Predict the structure.
Amino acid sequence: MLSVDGLGILSDDFVVVGRKPSVVREFGTRGTGFLGRVVLSKGDDPVLGRKVLVDLATSHVILVLGKRGYGKSYTLGVLVEELASLPYSVRSRTAVIVIDTVGIFWTMKVPNRDQKELLKKWGLEPKGFNVKVLVPKGTLPFYLEYGIPVDGYFAIRPSELGVTEWLGLFDLDLDSEAGSLLAGAVVEAEDKVGNYDLDDLIRIVGEMDASPHVKRSVAMRLAAAKEWGLFDKNAPRTVEYARAGAVNVIDVSTFKGAFGGQSIREVVVAVLGKKIFEERMKYRKVEEIQEMKTGRPVSEMPLVWMIIDEAHLFMPRGRKSVAKDVLSDWIRVGRQPGLSLVLATQRIDRMSDDAITQADIIIGHRITSYLDIQALSAVRPTYAGDSLDKHLATLPHTRGLAVLMDDVTEKVWVIRVRPRMSWHGGGSATALVKL
Ligand SMILES: Nc1ncnc2c1ncn2[C@@H]1O[C@H](COP(=O)(O)OP(=O)(O)OP(=O)(O)O)[C@@H](O)[C@H]1O
Ligand SMILES: [Mg+2]
């Protein structure tokens, strides 16, 4: 039996975070994910209580923090497993995109045999998930040679980048000669060619009215970009990477290059995020009309979850970033169109304040660095009347333990994140092997 008290605490079996008690009364726990259990005692191997269920049916900004090696990526994996396990009625309205900065999420296809005993204690079993792993086109032969299971390649149509992204990609300013030349060429390519490729852009740059050395330097940058294996005018439109019911893992770990400040992977996230944002804004209106007509707010475009590990790379503090601009839009206005972010970082002090101030669920694994505690406390000094540093300071060292702060129910829980059903790919490299 479901009983809801006024504080959002539910039944003896579970608590729901990120969902108002009124919504729980109406929809129960459908569309929530099993994140872990409440910690009831002190010590490294604490007594565990009620299940912690997290709302996955509406928009959230979830921030996963903590020192190296204390379970951030693991927790992201648990959330992705839960998103992939949602009942059909919710999953068919949800798309998940994992921005894999370290190249560790492909292992979700494989059952977690290593922690079989631990899983048993939790009443769970090892299980692989049907995630789609997409890698840059140029790296496909490597993955195939080593038998790493991939499902396809990821590429972007050059025409999906706007002037801002092109300039960001090459770290050019619109006021500079090279910047204005590139901007002019992009506009011309959009007008004259439509779905243009890099060769079209290089040709147009050559035809523009500018000094030869500036033309040459812009053309050379564009020619270098051909080598990245990122651009392909025959690629799917980026919004198609947000497919209802699917979990797409986009491996950006090998996109390392950068011309100056911003990296290729930042541009990948910026383009994906921007296009999905625009599309969701349109389809939200369709859903509202459907709701008026039929009572069911549905459309062809699913709600989207973007999961980003090492998120400080995309939301850097103190420098310009095309990705940061787009993700800030998701954070500030994503609730209305149904866009969610899960951001993990071990560098809170390097992360833009937007993510910290606006996150509605914070999962804090062990944090000891003075700079990080200061950065967190500066923007979120207290939580439900308690100081954050006090909560984090008393957290035992065990991996997987976390302080969970939930804005919706205004509650703070110390939790243990459940073991992963699928293989966790984030383990440390070691030269030691069993003999
Ligand atoms: N909830 C958990 N249950 C059991 N083991 C866990 C849990 N969380 C983490 N671990 C263990 O801790 C190890 C490190 O976790 P993880 O890779 O998530 O660290 P991280 O915080 O992402 O570190 P980094 O900052 O270096 O990326 C995992 O390989 C796993 O063995
Ligand atoms: Mg990690």
Summary: The chain has two domains: 9-156+235-417, 160-226. The pocket of magnesium ion (ligand 2) is lined by residues 72-73, 309, 426 (CB under 6 Å). Confidence is low (pLDDT under 50) at residues 1-9. The first helix runs from residue 21 to 27.
